[in-house]
Design a protein that fits this description.
Shape: globular
Keywords: Transferase, Tricarboxylic acid cycle
Organism: Microbacterium faecale
Catalytic activity: oxaloacetate + acetyl-CoA + H2O = citrate + CoA + H(+)
Strand content: under 5%
Order of helices and strands: EEEHHHHHHHHHHHHHHHHH
Largest sheet: 3 strands, antiparallel
Bound molecules: carboxymethyl coenzyme *A
Number of helices: 17
Family: Belongs to the citrate synthase family.
Structural class: mainly alpha
Oligomer: single chain
GO molecular function: citrate synthase activity
Length: 390
């Protein structure tokens, strides 16, 4: 006999766990809006921090609000030297996503007594701390993975420029920012800023619902994002393209293997729980892929391979009947690669992009007096009562 059981809903396909004012998606029509603003308009015209403010506080910032927000973030970029030692305690080949989530969790130990979810001053300061320090941790995770020394943040630089320098600068030489690359990366990060109740955001909310602080919640969100069905797909797409190219297998044959579900092989970067039409983010990324590679002077045959794969899949009954279209991860990897990021850093970039959304959703839940601890039901399918042999 089940008690308290309502409905079985694997993967929460039909269950809303919250109300939210932040992001609107119409998956049938391929629409995505942050606080009412269409994603294409924001990606084209806004800055990353402007969109972060919009997501967190509900309206576009005034000039003064944005300047103050930017300034406060710049003042919080330094990591405690003790935290920097954390990186050298991990194997140099450690995956940057594991380093990022662990270091985010470790970050909270520097703010004991300053992370109370019921203290608005703590909450607001930790939004600034996380926005300021996570890109630095991410860049150090990248540097650790390639065995290079860390640079101190340069707070005269903007958010994205600083991040690029921390990733690609080296101690001995001045780093020249490429404005084309900086703007291209900023646009990609804006596209990732929020996506309503996806797996990592739901994780952030679930952890936050227990009264856990922003550091614990964001760290858990990073773990959830790392999986290949979620943010880890951008890394998996590049691996898939690389394997097809190296094996010499035809794209058509690869697609046949996907359709036959041979060895569980999937077309990574395709399909989405919510979009049953072209992912509006993927549309923008695809448009900019050619442009960015061209501007960066990169000619990557993997981009042509990705296009061929897309073309074949979109004209195939298997993908059409299941409404499978490219998602945001299908073309981003090719651009990140052209920028010089190693494949293993791609999902870290997704995390830096998604951070404002996680913070906005955590804060919205924290301020919602209707929110309760998240606690799904189950349908028990095990043994009935048994007697332990006396
Ligand atoms: N390749 C081949 N078949 C697929 C794919 C794919 N990428 N995606 C879904 N299908 C098939 C699936 O096998 C199923 O077929 P059938 O009805 O014969 O069993 C049908 O389409 C429905 O798929 P589903 O698995 O029930 O759909 P879902 O909503 O549970 O999963 C998904 C969504 C994104 C996990 C899935 O499409 C997938 O695994 N895609 C590849 C991984 C990927 O690109 N993830 C990034 C998502 S977007 C970025 C983000 O927000 O994280």
């Amino acid at each position: 006999k089940q008690t308290g059981y309502t409905a079985l809903d694997y993967g929460f396909v039909n269950t809303a766990a919250t109300r939210s004012d932040i992001t609107y998606i119409d998956g049938e029509s391929g629409i995505l809006r942050y606080r009412g603003y269409p994603i294409d308009q924001l990606a084209e015209n806004a800055s990353f921090l402007e969109v972060a403010w919009l997501l967190i506080y509900g309206d576009l910032p005034t000039e003064d609000e944005l300047a103050d927000f930017d300034e406060r973030i710049r003042r919080h970029t330094l990591l405690h030297e003790d935290l920097k030692r954390f990186f050298s305690a991990l194997p140099s080949g450690a995956h940057p996503m594991a380093v990022l989530s662990s270091a985010t969790s470790a970050l909270s130990t520097f703010y004991e007594g300053k992370t109370d979810p019921d203290n608005p001053e703590h909450v607001e300061t930790n939004i600034i701390r996380l926005l300021a320090k996570l890109p630095v941790i991410a860049a150090y995770a990248h540097k650790t993975s390639i065995g290079q020394a860390f640079l101190y943040p340069d707070n005269s630089l903007g958010y994205v420029e600083n991040f690029l320098r921390l990733n690609f600068g080296v101690m001995s030489e001045p780093y020249e920012i490429d404005p084309v690359m900086a703007r291209a990366l900023e646009r990609l990060l804006i596209l990732h800023e929020d996506h309503e109740q996806n797996a990592s955001t739901s994780t952030v909310r679930l952890v936050g619902s227990t009264g856990a602080d922003q550091f614990a919640s964001v760290s858990a969100g990073i773990h959830a994002l790392s999986g290949p069905l979620h943010g880890g797909a951008n890394e998996a797409v590049l691996q898939m393209l690389g394997q097809i190219r190296e094996s010499g297998e035809s794209v058509q044959r690869f697609v046949e293997r996907v359709k036959n579900k041979e060895d569980g092989v999937k077309l990574m970067g395709f399909g989405h729980r919510v979009y049953k039409n072209y992912d509006p983010r993927a549309k923008i990324v695809k448009q900019s892929a050619d442009e960015v590679l061209d501007q960066l002077g990169v000619n990557d045959p993997l981009l042509d391979l990705a296009k061929e794969l897309e073309e074949i899949a979109l004209n195939d009954e298997y993908f059409q009947s299941r409404n499978l279209y490219p998602n945001v991860d299908f073309y981003t990897g090719v651009i990140y690669k052209a920028m010089g990021f190693p494949t293993r850093v791609f999902t870290v970039l997704f995390a830096i992009g998604r951070l404002p959304g996680w913070l906005a959703q955590w804060r919205e839940q924290n301020l919602d007096n209707k929110s309760k601890i998240g606690r799904p039901q189950q349908l028990y399918t095990g043994e009935p009562e048994r007697r332990y042999p006396a």
